[in-house]
Amino acid sequence: MIEQVGIGQSEFAADASEAEIASSKNEAGDTGIVQVIPEGGPDSEETKALVAELRGMHDHFQEEYGVDLAVTGYTAAGIDISIQLTEALLPFGVLIVGLSLVLLAMVFRSIVVPVTAALGYVLSIAAALGLTALVFVHGFLAGPIGVASVGTVISFMPIILMGVLFGLAMDYEVFLVTRMREDYVHHGTPRRAIIEGFVGSGRVVTAAAIIMVAVFAAFVPEGDASIQPIAFGLAVGVAIDAFVVRMTLIPAVLALFGHRAWWIPAWLDRLLPRFDVEGEGLSHELELADWPEPGAQLALVAEGLRTSDAVGAPEVDLSVAPGELLLVRGGTASARSAVLLALGGRSPVLGGRVKVDGLVLPTRAGAVRRRTAYVHADRTEDVVGDLRNALVGASVVMVDAIDAVTDPVLRARVRHLMTDAATADRRRDGAPLTFVVACRPDARLDDLLPPRAIVRTVTLASSAAGPTLATVR
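Structure (tokenized):
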């Protein structure tokens, strides 16, 4: 075995140019170590090529001499780590940029804000990496800065730079844009919101950025060769991100988009969780704590509920006690569905004051969805089964297009389920179940609704005159 290694040394010498070679074996004679010391440095391109060349000879030694060849050592391990970090760089960048898009969309309920924030972060990273390479690889201004080593940077520098700069960039973004959004929500003027937000938070971002730049820059002059590029990259990255991206480009882009900067599709708004960063939801809940009157126990209550921004869209007023039944008539099928979905926390409440089971909408939409159930009778093949499932654990059950159930047998079964649910103790707190049903204005529901239910009827108007509220015994 060791003789085969000795034979292979000549081949190593031929392929390894003028690299110094030494060998040794173990006592059993079945393992040999060949030490190859290249003339180039550990991080030189020649050394990387030599390691790749030696590893490429594995199959040759296996077939020719029966030797299982492996290359290891500090230099080879460092090359392997560099390759793995390089391969991980793009997935890592995609991950953190994707997370920033999702998180900022949840916080600011916008498409433009997270996209511009992510693009600004990419710009800051590109500028920081480019300037670091210019100084520490190409040697530009290396002397005045006091660079210890020119030609290469440590392999994990880009990962550290991307991670640290991501946290700082998102901090600056939240500092500035949160104040802008707060002003926009209260006043609805995009340009004023940008100015007020910049004036209110600009000093904080400036102070924080100056501190971080000074801290990182202090490690650059006469510092360790492995620390210098990291410190330099972070210093210029923070400076560019804070003063060029966050305080110059982001406000300019938001000003160009105007009202559209704070727009988000309705389906995405429903899908994303809500983060009450500014405390608006808490303030709204405290404001409505004693509404409509102190101690009121109502299953549903609304004043000026609006589900559409269209001209002439109705504003709904209603008040329903636990155990009563709310009947929504009139208007279009989509308008009736919008009211039910809004009361269930499943579509936006665009205006008015609304409480469902004591929870304020839209602030507590998630909790309202968990306490309510929605069944569309015209879009299911098993309305009885869906209704039976909806009755489990819900405080308010909503049946849309209930008049679509036309089969007499099914109507009887639906009525039996609703009657049984209305009289049974199905809630943990002992309060009776509340139903909300929607139908066409001319629908007959005598054989569908529970016989002794107290019915509150909301009739949606087809014009800007608005709805009427009537009580039927």
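The chain is about 50% helix and 15% strand. Residues 1-18, 464-473 have pLDDT under 50 and may be disordered.
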